[in-house]
Design a protein that fits this description.
The protein is mainly alpha-helical. 62% of the residues lie in helices and 0% in strands. The chain has nine helices and no strands. The radius of gyration is 67 Å and the shape is rod-shaped. It starts with 7 loop residues before the first helix and ends in a 10-residue tail after the last helix. About 12% of the residues have low confidence.
Length: 229
């Protein structure tokens, strides 16, 4: 095939037109690239956009964990509450001290009562004391009689003299004179002597209790005796 060569002007025109077309294509491609580059975020922005979001812990009741932890933290006692607690403690201590003091007082009273019971009762060494001591013994032994009955018969028999002796009645004639506050003869004293008293006819308390014991056996009580018996 015979070669055909375009004229110089035609070649230049053709190249120039082709070049323009290529340039236009490149420009268009560059604009598209530029738009793509502009639209695409930077690497830092992309990393930031794709970074996992921070997740805050939430408690069971829906409150943030930090708030919940703060709410769960022990609270300091209010000064008023601490004051009341201190007063209650002081009150309890005072009550305990009072109870201990009362218990000690009761114990001391019981000890004094025991000491009084352990110590023998004291009686005056006179007619009143002798009668009162005899009455306590008679009560313990179950022998009836009253202060009035004893006193009345004593005054009639001996006028209150524990050493009085009858030396003129039938008993004296028989050699067993009546003696003591209630004028008791020795055989009667020996039979009705009350255990725990002196074994002596003229002892005031022993004489009274033996006579009251004899009168209770014969008359029911010394209170029923109004004359010689």
């Amino acid at each position: 095939m015979p070669s055909f060569t375009l004229p110089r002007t035609a070649r230049i025109t053709r190249i120039t037109r082709a070049h323009k077309v290529a340039t236009a294509v490149l420009v268009a491609a560059g604009a598209t690239t530029a738009l793509a580059v502009t639209a695409e975020p930077s690497s830092a922005q992309a990393a930031s956009a794709h970074a996992p979001a921070t997740v805050k812990k939430v408690s069971a009741n829906g409150m943030p964990a930090a708030v919940q932890a703060k709410g769960d933290a022990p609270k300091a006692e209010h000064p008023a509450i601490e004051s009341v607690a201190a007063q209650v403690k002081v009150t309890d201590t005072a009550k305990q001290a009072h109870a201990m003091k009362q218990a000690h007082t009761v114990k001391q009273a019981a000890n004094r009562s025991t000491e009084r019971k352990a110590q023998p009762k004291e009686y005056a060494n006179n007619l009143d004391g002798w009668i009162r001591e005899a009455l306590d013994i008679m009560k313990a032994k179950g022998i009836p009689g009253s202060y009035e009955g004893l006193h009345r018969n004593i005054m009639r028999e001996s006028s209150g003299n524990p050493n009085a002796v009858n030396d003129w009645d039938i008993n004296a004639i028989n050699g067993i004179p009546s003696k003591g506050l209630l004028q008791v003869i020795q055989p009667t004293f020996d039979t009705y002597h009350v255990a725990g008293t002196a074994d002596k006819l003229t002892d005031p308390v022993a004489n009274i209790t033996a006579a009251a014991n004899y009168a209770a056996d014969r008359y029911g009580s010394i209170d029923n005796v109004n004359s010689a018996y």
